[in-house]
Amino acid sequence: ASVETFTQRNSGYYTAVFERHQRGQLGALHVNLAALLVPWFWSAFRGVWIIFWAALAIDVIALVCLLQYVKYTPLLDAALSDPDNNRLLISRYSGWISTYLTFGTVILIAGHLWRGAMADRLYYRQYAKWRIDVTTPNGWDLRRCVLACMILVFCVPLTLYRATQQRLDDR
């Protein structure tokens, strides 16, 4: 079974990458740029669902952390209007803002780098499996991308919205 039949698009790139991987010459710094920049769409088109779900989880966690800035900045501003009575709140909100911003940024960047580095390796494993079992996802399938878009549209906005809301009751 050929790489061209498996990939359907960009077969020259994947032929070279798969050959280097088989020889153990695929460098640790090798990155698939498409998977680095748009991992959800690359993985859905290619059927590498482990990358899709990992990208979704990592990016949602990172974005929730980054959006805590939106949640806590107005509270910090309100606490700063009366610093003598809000020392604890100022300290707490400042700490949370810097922690969430740092953690969210690190997770977002590290997650993208990991996905970019692992994409071709996992795609090669999928190719090896496809050579044994032709029912393994292969090629470039728009239906998989539509499914991924539906998952993203229905899950991500609600999760991000809920994560940035403040509790208004006295619990």
Draw up the topology in text.
Blueprint: H1 3-7, H2 11-22, H3 33-37, H4 39-46, H5 49-80, H6 87-132, H7 142-163
Helix pairs in contact: 4-5, 4-7, 5-6, 5-7
Give an overview in words.
The protein is mainly α and 171 residues long. Helices cover 76% and strands 0% of the residues. It is built from 7 helices and no strands. The longest helix is centred in the middle third of the chain and has 46 residues, at 87-132. The mean pLDDT is 89.
Low-confidence stretches: none
Number of helices: 7
Helix coverage percent = over 70%
Count of distinct strands = 0
Query: Which value, in Å, is the CA radius of gyration?
Result: 21 Å
Q: Work out the strand percent.
A: under 5%
Shape annotation: elongated
SSE string, helices as H and strands as E: HHHHHHH
> What do the pLDDT scores average to?
89
Distance between the termini: 62 Å
Q: Give the oligomeric state of the chains in this entry, treating copies of one chain as homo and distinct chains as hetero.
A: single chain
Structural class: mainly alpha
- Biggest pleated-sheet summary: none
